[in-house]
Write a structure and sequence with these properties.
Layout (H helix, E strand, L loop, with lengths): L1 H19 L1 H23 L7 H17 L2 H4 L15 H4 L1 H21 L4 H22 L5
């Protein structure tokens, strides 16, 4: 019984520690975003047929993750170093600009879900806005892996 209590306690502590790590939290969100974008990128490129259900599910994932993106909680002072992160120091130098980019991403993913693209052309229009946000933010606020 003691071993079970100890094991459960360790798991709870490990989960709490991961939740308290802003670098791990933001990386988890970014990985989910990457997976969602990848699932529909081939449709946008015309390499896969349009699938309204898949598109909407991916857009919903992007929107849900965007709405979780709390800049103050995920990018606190001091989290720019001390971990495996590609977050650029520019985030902390221009927190207002970064917040503006995040707010635009939130608005565009929300609009994409609300639009519920029913055909390829409508999807491409929404996907273009969302993907452009990702690209411009990564260009400005992310260190490229070499």
């Amino acid at each position: 019984m003691r071993k079970l209590v100890l094991a459960v306690s360790m798991l709870a502590f490990a989960g709490t520690a991961a939740m308290a790590d802003p670098i791990a939290q933001r990386q988890e969100i970014m990985k989910a975003n990457g997976k969602a974008l990848k699932s529909i990128a081939a449709i946008a490129k015309g390499e896969q047929p349009f699938d309204a259900e898949l598109v909407l599910a991916a857009l919903k994932t992007l929107n849900e993750d965007a709405q979780k993106f709390d800049v103050a909680a995920l990018f606190p002072q001091g989290s720019e170093t001390g971990g495996d992160t590609t977050a650029s120091p520019k985030i902390w130098e221009d927190m207002a600009g970064f917040q503006k980019a995040v707010d635009k991403f939130k608005a565009d993913t929300e609009a994409a879900v609300a639009a519920a693209p029913a055909d390829l052309d409508a999807f491409k229009a929404e996907f273009g806005k969302v993907a452009q946000n990702c690209g411009s933010c990564h260009e400005t606020f992310r260190i490229k892996k070499g």
